[in-house]
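Appendix B.2, paired examples.
Example (i):
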Amino acid sequence: MSPCWKRRRRHALLAGLLAAMCGVANASQTDYLPPWNPPPTGGVSFAMPPFDAIADLHGDIVDPQLTVFFAGNQFMVVHDLIEVFKQRYPAYQRVFVETLPPGILAKQIETGSLVMGNLRIALKPDIFTAGKGSIAASQKQHGWFADTVDYARNPLAILVAKGNPKHVEGLKDLGRDDVRVSMPNPQWEGIAKQIEASYRKAGGDALDHTVMDEKVKAGTTYLTRIHHRESPLRVLQGESDAAPVWSTEAYFQQQILHRPVETVAIPADQNVTATYTAARMKDAPHTQAAKDFLAFMASPEAQAIYRKYGFQPPQP
């Protein structure tokens, strides 16, 4: 074997090894990408994250018998919830669900459509869910809703990488220069207001200003650009060190998906607990389906699914 051939062989082996290592790294990062729900069965599967992978549109978009606009933090519940609803109400088999930030869903209702890439969706919702305060504000401003039901509660938590390498012990640590924070965008994420209230409880206006102004300008606080789904993903991919999230999002990543993350609890005196409300639209295209779904949300079956994913029951 000539020396030249040996060198070529070594180079080929090294190149192959490098390609394999890159492939493993890319695969591991791709494994974290949404969607994080089981896909529908049947049909041609055409998705390779991050390409053509639609995470927050669920079910049947053509001639749905029920359309639900869900607050985006409940994406993990949708698969189980809708399957059980279909079993209990077999008349409804074509159900379409969106799990986007409530501020975006409200704009979609106001404008009449949502544009996602090259797709335009002009479906009217039968049910709209959001935080209790947001529902009350929308009702006062627009008078959209016929009736409502509270169905779950959720406190805040801090999501960090496994091992908590930055030793984040509480909200005050998010003000440190060396801690990169992923923060929901206050422009359309209702959770942002809740987190800022917790900042003020933990460290006054100074902590809120540090995290939301100074660190944003310095580039050490990242404001989500489209959805608070970004925050867990940034922690998983090492782009952020800590992310204030709903406790159920941390629970889902750690306990359901078994991802390499940990949860830092926020004390009750610094925490904020949201109540979620489902509202039936006055102009719902499917009035009876909307009534049935609203009743279902308070049923033992639906409540058991919410408990499975870490949500707390509504206050009586």
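Example (ii):
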Amino acid sequence: MDAGREVFRRQDRLTARAEPVEAAFRRRVIDALIAPLRALNAVEAVWEGGSAATGRLDAFSDVDLCIVAPPEATGAVFDAVESALAAIAPIEHTWRVDPPAFRDMAQRFYLLAGAPPFFAVDCSVLAPAGVAQFLERERHGEPLVYFDRGGRVRAVPLDRDAHEARRRARLEQIGQSVPVYALLARKEIARKRALEALGFYQALLRALVELLGMAHRPERFDFGLRYVHGDFPPQVRDRLAHFAFVPDGDTLAERIEEIVAAIEAQRAAVTASIHAVP
């Protein structure tokens, strides 16, 4: 069977889960983008990541397009993307992410006039040297490949040794940073500056989310609050909501003490689990 035809059949199966209007618009955008990108000789491959790759596609999903091209072709690639999108609908807003979240990457978000609510195009141009980190199956799912001139775009297993080293390093950093953030949060409460205390409290919340991630989704412990609805058990999500939604400054003082205790308990549990592995 023709590989491209099979990709679009898979895309049809995925978009069938979305509402008809959203699915049709999404497919129209993708169809409009693939041909001009294929016409650029510098573009080595195009695949869709995000919800299409992880099986989470719904009526609210963006198009997360990954385009492999050398850095010197980035401008031409974005020109082609923007021309294709403008042929569908006016581009109402563009966010040129600077600096990008990763090396060897350029990223832009596009919002289109008349698009379904919450729809965006997240377009990343990846240098060939930076592709591998976006293809780890346990973190990013199965790429939906639209074309791949070199036949090299495929999901690969997570490098567990390297990932475990990152997890242990982050665990150590959390252990060192939490007493400092706690002190700073308490200090601002004592000064009656709850708003400033909130900034340090949010750092404590991020630490707790990462620790819970190490327990419940170790391959994606560093994804923050992304995907917690599907990755964390309901009681864990409820506990996080208790810490996340602080009604006022007086309650914040109580939450600081609660979250520090929760962090220390969770850090001890994660540390014990690491040491228990032979």
